[in-house]
Amino acid sequence: MNSMKVNRISTFLIICCAVIMAGILAGLIGYILYQGVSNISLHFLTSDASAFLAGGGIKNQLWNSFYILLITMILTVPLGIAGGIYMAEYAKPNKLTGFMRSCLEVLSSLPSIVVGMFGLLVFVNFFHWEYSILSGALALTVFNLPVIVRVCEDALRSVPHDQRLSGLALGLTQWHTIKKVLLPAAFPGILTGLILSAGRVFGESAALLFTAGLSTPNLDFTNWNPLAPNSPLNLLRSAETLSVHIWAVNSDSIIPDAKQVASGAAAVLVICILLFNLFARCLGKLVERKMIGK
């Protein structure tokens, strides 16, 4: 068998694998949307969940999901970008750096349920923050931080080395070269990675089962005092997120329309994650075009 035939067979097999994966993904997303889109309405998105009666919504769970995501990204982005800069520009190839990379690999590959158990032991029990938004956000920070460090490091390493040398040749210090030359050049890749990681955090459930809790108070959206028990901004209240709500409704809910609520919530979750991915790609391309134009 000559190399031309081997190349054609390999190409055919790769295309088949890609088509199979795309087909499975499209089928899964299509099934979820087909089952759930018909259950989505303005009332469903803006009404409180019901524990016993039919007709409940996902208002509080949807807010909790976005709020925990916001707190998580506030905690994760500065640490992740700083870690990525260090690993890409300052860390020397030695045993310490190798150990740090191994730690990042282990953290990024940990099952989310393990991160949830860690959050339960440390944030909920040791620090006595109970089941709360703060405990959930910190657990997701542990879960998401290695991803952002790797994204930032890879984006910085993708910048041509000549740009580093040009900044240093102009008399800039290493930090000013990173700040003025490398970070702007790597910004599209960093931004895309941040938005994609946000979509990953938004759909997380296992880590939040043990940290944010399985219940949420009926939030008063007229009271924005962060110390009030039912305030949307209170960091120390329990907060059932959308993904956790789907699990709870499917597992032990007694409401008559449990299937419809779970299907509608799953469709909303999938749509949000798809929008995160679409927004990441569009924004990354837009920023890259503007930078090329400059």
From TrEMBL:
Species in which this protein is naturally found: Scopulibacillus cellulosilyticus
Record lineage: Bacteria, Bacillati, Bacillota, Bacilli, Bacillales
Domain called ABC transmembrane type-1: residue spans: 62-280
Pfam families associated with the record: BPD_transp_1
Membrane topology: Multi-pass membrane protein
InterPro entries noted in UniProt: MetI-like, MetI-like_sf, Phosphate_PstA
Compartment(s) of residence: Cell membrane
UniProt similarity note: Belongs to the binding-protein-dependent transport system permease family. CysTW subfamily.
Highest taxon listed in the record's lineage: Bacteria
Sorted UniProt keywords: Cell membrane, Membrane, Transmembrane, Transmembrane helix, Transport
Keyword Transmembrane: yes
Broad class of the protein's primary localization: membrane
Transmembrane annotation, as ranges: 12-34, 66-86, 106-127, 133-152, 181-202, 261-284
UniProt-recorded name of the protein: Phosphate transport system permease protein PstA
